[in-house]
Amino acid sequence: MATTFKWTAKTKGGTIQQGEMTAATREEVITSLRNQDMTPTIVNEKKAVGFQVDLFKKGKKKIKDKDVIVFTRQFGNMYGAGIPIVQALDILTKQTENPSLRNVVGEIKGDVESGMTFAESLKKHPQVFDDLYVNLVAAGEAGGVLDTVLQRLTIYIEKAMRLKSKIKGAMIYPIVVLGIAVLVVAIIMIFVIPVFAKVFTDMGVKLPLPTQLVISFSNFIAGIGGLIIFGLMIAAFVGFRMYRKTASGHMETDRLLLKLPIIGILINKVAVARFTRTLGTLISSGVPILDGLEICAKSSGNKVVEKVIFDVRKEVTAGKTLSEPMNKYSIFPPMVVQMISVGESTGSLDQMLSKVADFYDDEVDNSVANLTTLLEPMLMIFLGVVIGFIVVALYMPIFKLGAVVGS
Description:
By secondary structure, this protein is mostly helical. The chain contains 17 helices and three strands.
């Protein structure tokens, strides 16, 4: 099936020309341009407009970290075995399972064929390959150690993905339990309580205060009150998301998260683990420390941590060591600062950063386990108290009626 491609190419005289060409594949366009004594620089499929574009985007399969890990490992193995970059990319284009990543790899192959470096071609796809990935590849190409860098990247992404899954697991469990608790209480309030209320009304029993409170709340939830509460919850969620999208809102919510009793400590440990792991990987791959700090700041995931790292970078630019400005901020524990200081003095900063990252990965494991252990009984107690109060409130009139009948 023929496809229209938009191209940009350089002539022998050095002028830039642009145009469109219909061909079966992208490679045909590149070959045709070269036959015309032009060097293609950009050859991309012409996208449809309007409604078709929306459908195309919606149909795309998301590229996950796991897909990037597989691509990096396979490409690194082939490159390390002596297979040229273009040939390795061609093989990966044919065997990559994710169609979205397969298209991206095909575009990268075409860019490399047209004269771009591997790092430059990766930079055109920031949604797949972030600054860390691109800078490491650029350093590997410049130093002739691309296969080593790709191995480090694979290890880094795997550990980062494992850390992310731990955090998600720690958050999902309490949310699921709390959601089930709220659902159970809502069902009792909407469907069970009205049945008991009708029985009590038919019997003409004078209801105790706890029973009156439960029935009144049930009537409120089953009526317009339930819609009001649901609407307020939706409004609060949307308002929070909109506030967080602002610069000041993002900063304030991240600062609040760091101050939370248990969650804040966990977030802090995650930030330290991510910072040390990222910076250690960058430095060991030959990326300058100032560039490494900038990448660490942008990939920190927390605006407060990002600002702190940029402040540290500013002082390092002024001539200070890395550990000196870090000592001013409570985000970095004293042990981390001391180990980085030792690494700087012994010339083994990258190794020391990796050791700190390993240590804090274990700390995150322990914190997640402790959080789960602590939240489980708290949620069970909450659920037991709420349902227990409802049950007692419903049985109090029955006990009272039994006592009257017995007397």
